Amino acid sequence: MSNPVYLALDLPSLDAAKALAQKVKGHVGGLKLGLEFFCAHGSHGVHEIAQVGLPIFLDLKLHDIPNTVAGAMQAIHVLEPAIVTVHASGGRAMLEDAKAAAGEHTKVVAVTMLTSLDERDLVKQGIGGTPHDHVMRLTELAHSAGIDGIVCSGQEVGEAHKQWKGGFFVVPGLRPAGSAVGDQKRVVTPRKARDDGASVLVIGRPISRAADPVQAARDIEATL
Ligand code: C5P
Asked: Is the pLDDT of residue 186 over 80?
């Protein structure tokens, strides 16, 4: 089985990101580039990182009218990303058009509810029910729109996997046993998330900020 760990390259400099990716490439399965990276370094930066030879996850969280999102998906086609994120709350037509415009080897995965939001934010947006209800509603929407899967926390992946057997589940917010939690609140270990049905494990700082990133990546790999 291939390594499910995608290293989040949340580093300000392209050179530093590429150097880190080169170092750990034997012990992770892919590389995640976020919106900040893409705004700073564009497709040139993605091509540079792709030279490392691992699959690329473009975490752009696209959210706009269907035509615009489809156009953006077509524009990033040449970068051949393995995974791209969109917002489930963009609605069914947007999700369908995003999937139709993506390359055949690109998984389109929906963000349900940002973990920075809570129940009070939902009330202010006029959305009823608990955050959990909202996440499950959007998961159902993503499933029925025919995209590949969702981004969810390690706490939700077990239930989401039961509800959507063939889904592709991307799980961030993971911490190996004993490592610093940082700003992540509800964390689980990579192994637990994997056992509960995660397809991809997004891990950043436990590797990128480790004194020895290669050893940290190896240690995580060994637990899987
Ligand atoms: O450093 P850390 O392992 O916390 O990095 C996690 C990565 O996953 C970051 O790139 C972060 O933006 C992303 N992410 C997250 N929580 C979410 C969605 C994405 O931590 N709910």
From this structure: no
Q: Kindly give the distance from the C-alpha atom of residue 209 to the centroid of ligand 1, in angstroms, as a whole number.
A: 14
- Collect contacts of 62-68 with beta carbons under 8 A, ≥24 apart: 62/86, 62/87, 62/90, 62/98, 63/87, 63/89, 63/90, 63/94, 64/90, 64/94, 65/94, 66/90, 66/91, 66/93, 66/94, 66/96, 66/97, 66/98, 67/97
Using an 8 Å Cβ cutoff, are 143 and 119 in contact? no
Q: Which is more confidently placed, 115 or 194?
A: 194
The pick from 202, 205, 207, 220 for probing ligand 1's pocket by mutation, whose C-beta has the most ligand atoms within 8 angstroms, reads 202
Is the pTM higher than 0.90? yes
202 lines ligand 1 (CB under 6 A): yes
Q: How far is the CA of 184 from the centre of ligand 1 (A)?
A: 8
Query: 159 and 135 in contact (C-beta within 8 Å)?
Result: no
pLDDT of residue 210 exceeding 80: yes
The residue range of the domain holding 90 is 5-223
CATH number at residue 103: 3.20.20.70
Q: How many domains does the chain have?
A: 1
Residue 205 CA to ligand 1 center (angstroms) comes to 9
DSSP type of residue 113: S
Atom number in ligand 1 closest to CA 111? 18
- Mean pLDDT across the chain: 94
pLDDT at position 177, please? Answer: 85
